[in-house]
Amino acid sequence: MEILYFFATFSWLGKLRGPLALGHSRNKLFLSKWGITVKFFKKYYLRSDTKYIDILNEPVKNSHYYFDLIKVKITYFYNLIFK
Fold first, then answer.
1. N or C: which end of the chain has fewer CB within 10 A?
2. DSSP assignments along the chain, one per residue
């Protein structure tokens, strides 16, 4: 079933034209499915800018985290309303 979902999603996204359209639609798909952006996920959960040392813990929830989370949620609701 997962393979069918992957190919159905890939074939639907493959119909878009241009290299930027494909990346943009995948970001929107991630946002609509998980409620956060890829950039936010990589920055706070995967921490892709730091060297891997041990198991990843929960993100540090400070003012920067909440400010970025508010921006992501505004983007999410904007896409829901004006889809």
1. N
2. -HHHHHHHHHHHHHTS-SHHHHHHHHHHHHHHHHSS-HHHHIIIII-TTS---S---PPP-SHHHHHHHHHHHHHHHHHHHT-
